[in-house]
Amino acid sequence: MINSMSIGFRLRYNKRDSAKHEAAANNHKSKEDRSNPFAAMIYVRVTINGCSKDLFSTNIKCPKGKWDFDNMQIVFNEQKIQQVVSHPSFRLLSQQASQKRVNLHSLLESSEFAWLLADEDYTHYLSNQKLKTIFNKFSSIEARYNAAEEILDFDTLGKEYRGEMVKNDTLLGVAKSYLQVIQSRIGSETASSTYDIYKRYVNKLEAYLIDSKRKNILISQVNYTFAQDFKVWMLMTKKHNANYVGRIIPFFKQVMDEAVRMGYIDHNPAKPLRVRVDRAPKIEWLEPEELEALWKLYESGTLEGREQKAAAAFLFCCHTGMAYIDYSIFNPERFEKERAILRRVKVKQPRIEVVDGMRVIVGNRVKSNTDYCIPLSELNPIASILLERAGSPENLAYVPNGHLNVFLKLLGAKAGIDKEIDFHMARKTFAFHLINIWKIPVESVIAIMGWKDIKEADPYVKLQNSRVVSDFQDVPVRRLTSSATRTQSIALARFKE
Questions:
Q1: Of 329, 347, 348, 330, whose CA–CA distance to 338 is shortest?
Q2: Helices and strands counted in the chain (H then E)
Q3: 430, 318 contact by CB (below 8 A)
Q4: pLDDT one-digit tens code per residue, 113-149
Q5: Is residue 61 located within the same domain as residue 184?
Q6: Cα(156)–Cα(345) distance, rounded to whole angstroms?
Q7: Are residues 80 and 191 in the same domain?
């Protein structure tokens, strides 16, 4: 049993009233004044796992000396009241009050039982019924939480009793609500791939909540310690990479910010949480020699079936820089998933156009909805060769993403490439070649790759000494030959000697 709980009632006397009563007794007032002490308020007292707390007042007063501590109820003439409530006429009035949804007291006023309204025993009987209802309600909450093996605390218990526990009041509920907000922004502010990533993050959070038996934890119960435990669980128990955890924690903070916006909490307790990650992204690409080895393997004719298709798709994207999802929607009619993507986001199907005599692939990215324009020239002839063999872009080789990376690792081993190849390496390879080998200006690279910001090019800039020297030699020559003075020309001639 997860929760050990006991429910009881406690009398709390008003100290001011008690002082007044003692003063009245000392002043030798009438016997009636001295024998009618002030009533005590009845509070609900709950003990959970050894910790006790008065949750709230029942607004029921019990005269001193009338409380039965063994049965936790007010003493009254039970036999007298049972005779009244079991009377057929009284039962009929009770049924009418229930059917008409009116207060029973309003019917008693005009009946033969009007005297009950001023009867002390009947008042105590009604008070005991209310106390019994409170006790049963708390007992059912305890049984439900124990059956679900969920931890119960005073705050949760109070909210459950008052009916304030709603679905979105839990951490998981807020996370799923925020996920719906992200989904509604697809096509305008958010890419569909971002939504898919966030959905996996929510699943990871749910797995932790189930593992820690806190699936229904309230958003108000989440504190810095909880966030820290979540981070440690991912790093130590699940053995996740720090960079991966470093992406989930910011999403968790976004969920908590959403809870602040929705008014569940007044501040984000996870805001100070940090994860040490490698800020320099790990960019891996294929060198021209490795690409040539992979092309020779493809042309050798030893590959068959999906292995051959995987090689063709990967080589095409190595020479065009297309992401997997952008490449896959060349022909969305083949697969329901790609058709759903085009319906969900405002993305046009990639197409071949001719601009200034050169064929280009144009479209807009599924991830960011930014336009791209990929030239097909002598710099990337393999892309043109694969297009000609396919006959049309719609007939390009396609392999489902779940199997694709498995085939690519096998292909890398066969080609003698000592790198962990995945499909996204094709895009990284093309970007690296554009900037560092073909020396395409960064502004053009951004348009070719469909990047949003020039900062996305920073990880790919890996200038070698040979390029630095060649650039240093070329630029001054161009400037001096166009506008050189006599002295500069003589100095340049001596420099060349």
A1: 329
A2: 21, 8
A3: yes
A4: 788 778 888 888 888 889 988 988 888 888 877 777 7
A5: no
A6: 41
A7: no
| Nearest one of 206, 144, 151, 200 to 174, comparing CA atoms | 206
Give the pLDDT confidence of 197-249 residue by residue, as tens digits: 999 999 999 999 999 988 888 888 899 999 999 999 999 999 998 888 999 99
CA distances from residue 104 to 58, 77, 444, 452 in whole angstroms, order as listed: 20, 21, 82, 70
Q: Give 25-53 pLDDT, tens digit per residue.
A: 555 444 444 444 567 889 999 998 888 88
Residues 20 and 67 in one domain: yes
- How does pLDDT run across 327-383, given as a tens digit for each residue? 888 876 655 555 555 555 566 788 899 998 899 999 988 877 889 999 999 888 999
Residue type, 86: S
Separation in Å, CA 162 to CA 55, 137, 138, 144, 478:
12, 10, 11, 16, 81
Looking at the fold, whether 10 and 100 belong to one and the same domain comes out as: yes
Specify the number of domains making up the chain: 4
Residue 12, SS3 per DSSP: strand
Distance CA 380, CA 121 (A): 97
Within this chain, do residues 477 and 454 fall inside the same structural domain, yes or no? no
Domain range holding 330?
288-462
Domain finish residue from 247, 262, 277:
262
How far apart, in whole angstroms, are the C-alpha atoms of residue 449 and residue 191?
16
Decide: helix, strand or coil at residue 411: helix
Same domain for 228 and 305, yes or no, is: no
DSSP 8-class letter at 272:
T
> Within 13 Å of residue 15, how many CA atoms lie on the same side as its CB?
0
Q: Is residue 315 part of a domain?
A: yes
Distances (CA, A) of 299 to 89, 263, 304, 355, 385: 99, 62, 11, 30, 12
pLDDT in tens, 161-194: 887 654 447 899 889 888 888 887 776 667 777 8
Work out whether strand 358-364 and strand 351-355 pair parallel, antiparallel, or are unpaired: antiparallel
40 touches 64 (CB < 8 A): yes
| Beta strand pairing call for 358-364 and 371-375 | antiparallel
Gap between the Cα atoms of 404 and 421, Å rounded: 10
Residues 131 and 250 in one domain: no
Of 92, 112, 147, the one marking the end of a domain is: 147
Question: Residue with structure tokens 């336009």?
Answer: 371
Residue 447 lies in a domain: yes
Relative orientation angle of helices 242-262 and 224-232, to the nearest 10 degrees: 150
- Tell me, what amino acid is at 423? F
Report the SS3 class of residue 379. coil
Q: Is residue 178 part of a domain?
A: yes
278 in any annotated domain? no
